[in-house]
């Protein structure tokens, strides 16, 4: 061995810290294992463990006479989800989640398109600031603020009156099912607040997807004789679809699981989140609450599988 080769191999460092550092340098897989073990244990025990415990509870039932949990495997609790009152809660939640997702996508697309195509320099920073700023304020403060805005004596009613559009507001509130005495106690109000709160989660993925669309594709579409509607339908929308689906993952799942917004703004009819809270709280029916909780998990599992096939994860 030459002298240069001998000097290239440094002697091991002394002390416990030095020897430990040399060990990690020789075996990087050991360092990776030690770094990942604590968070994986936390994820496995606290998160996955709680989901498994929840799933297990859903296969138990409540004794009708004593009110105690009967720890015997049964599907009776899942059968209760098909009762008209409980099935209406599931259907109501799904329809609201779908409506919020579609409305968020419709509002988010032009905003995201402007940011991706025309906002440059400081204006793009202003765009990001405007989108992220609502997320910095308290969730409860925003919801209660909207309750005041949508109230019968709120600023929105005052604005309709000033514009002589009270007849339009009264017509909306007179619509069966979704109407009410005021926007703050109607499904329309619940829908408005859901869209406002979750809209940033739709705008950002759509904007990221549109950023990846080459500008020359839009120009080529115009050069080939396509009008703006055809360009949107055959060029922009297919390429932005992964971003829309990625944003819908947030808006759909967050709407399905939320119970605070319907509790503060809306009617007395329950959504899944409220049903879970009521069943595990005042009613004390843990198995039924667990069965209700499994519903959005199953739906979102199927939805995520579809979203993955559509390439939505590439836009996150």
Helix content: over 70%
Number of strands: 2
For the CA atoms, what is the radius of gyration? 27 Å
Query: Which CATH architecture of the largest domain is right?
Result: Orthogonal Bundle
* Number of helical stretches of at least 4 residues: 15
Q: Stretches where pLDDT falls below 50 for ≥5 residues?
A: 3-8
Strand proportion, as a percent range, falls in under 5%
At the fourth level of CATH, the homologous superfamily of the largest domain is: MetI-like
What does the average pLDDT come to?
A: 83
Class inferred from helices and paired strands: mainly alpha
Name of the CATH first level of the largest domain? Mainly Alpha
How many domain regions?
Answer: 2
Separation, N- and C-terminal Cα atoms: 54 Å
Looking at the structure, the CATH topology of the largest domain is MetI-like fold
Protein traits:
two-stranded antiparallel ribbon; 2 domains; 15 helices; transmembrane; 2 strands; mainly alpha; single chain; membrane; disordered N terminus; MetI-like; 316 residues; transmembrane helix; MetI-like fold
């Amino acid at each position: 061995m030459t002298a240069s080769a001998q000097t290239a191999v440094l002697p091991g460092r002394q002390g416990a810290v030095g020897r430990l550092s040399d060990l990690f340098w020789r075996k990087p897989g050991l360092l990776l294992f030690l770094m990942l073990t604590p968070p994986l244990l936390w994820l496995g025990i606290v998160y996955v463990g709680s989901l498994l415990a929840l799933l297990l509870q859903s296969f138990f039932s409540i004794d009708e006479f004593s009110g105690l949990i009967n720890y015997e495997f049964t599907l009776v609790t899942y059968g209760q989800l098909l009762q008209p009152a409980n099935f209406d809660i599931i259907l109501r939640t799904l329809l609201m989640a779908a409506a919020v997702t579609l409305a968020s996508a419709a509002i988010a697309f032009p905003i995201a398109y402007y940011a991706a195509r025309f906002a440059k320099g400081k204006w793009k920073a202003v765009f990001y600031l405007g989108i992220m700023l609502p997320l910095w304020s308290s969730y409860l403060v925003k919801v209660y603020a909207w309750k005041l805005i949508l109230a019968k004596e709120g600023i929105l009613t005052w604005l309709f009156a000033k514009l002589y559009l009270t007849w339009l507001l009264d017509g909306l509130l007179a619509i069966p099912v979704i109407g009410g005495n005021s926007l703050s106690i109607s499904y329309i109000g619940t829908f408005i607040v859901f869209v406002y709160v979750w809209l940033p989660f739709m705008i950002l993925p759509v904007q990221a997807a549109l950023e990846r669309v080459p500008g020359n594709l839009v120009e080529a579409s115009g050069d080939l004789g396509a009008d703006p509607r055809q360009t949107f339908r055959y060029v922009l929308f297919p390429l932005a679809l992964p971003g829309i689906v990625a944003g819908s993952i947030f808006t759909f799942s967050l709407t399905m699981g939320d119970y605070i917004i319907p509790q503060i703004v809306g009617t007395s009819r329950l959504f899944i989140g409220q049903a879970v809270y009521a069943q595990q709280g005042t009613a004390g029916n843990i198995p039924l609450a667990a069965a209700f909780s499994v519903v959005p998990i199953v739906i979102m599992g199927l939805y995520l599988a579809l979203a993955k096939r559509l390439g939505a994860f590439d836009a996150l």
